[in-house]
Write a structure and sequence with these properties.
Elements (H helix, E strand, L loop, with lengths): L7 E4 L13 E8 L4 E4 L4 E6 L9 E6 L2 E2 L3 E5 L4 E3 L1 E5 L5 E5 L5 E4 L14
Antiparallel strand pairs: 1-2, 1-7, 2-3, 3-6, 4-5, 7-8, 9-10, 10-11
Length: 123
């Protein structure tokens, strides 16, 4: 999956999409890779109705975020200031890195560096 926890994403479809002038850009709270879903801060909020109980005598409504499909969000590139497609590349140090397909700016490393990923030196 190309999205990780604490990434900034832009919602590109659904009720929380926003307008072109006011796009919805938010932080990813949780990633559910087995379901291909992400939980985004302030997006897809629903109310859970709680009955009065010994613990919660008042009862009421609890607002919480529900997962959205990962295909409904795009990783946000601060350089381009919009949601972008993401590619993967290996740096000279052997570090795998995500990058913006539009401006080629790095968007963060993926995992620890692996020296075996470094291509053989050209002679």
């Amino acid at each position: 999956m190309h999205i990780r926890k604490d990434d900034q994403v832009e919602v590109i479809t659904g009720d929380d999409k926003g307008t072109p002038s006011s796009r919805t850009i938010a932080k990813v709270l949780r990633v559910l890779p087995e379901k291909n879903k992400v939980v985004v801060e302030g997006v897809n909020r629903v109310y859970k109705h709680l009955k009065p109980s010994q613990k919660n005598q008042q009862g009421g409504r609890l607002s919480k975020e529900m997962p959205v499909d990962a295909s409904n969000v795009m990783l946000y590139c601060p350089t381009c200031a919009r949601g972008v497609r993401v590619g993967h590349r290996v740096t000279e140090s052997g570090q795998k890195q995500r990058y913006c397909k539009a401006c080629k700016a790095g968007l963060g490393d993926v995992g620890p560096a692996k020296p075996s990923r470094v291509k053989a030196a050209k002679k």
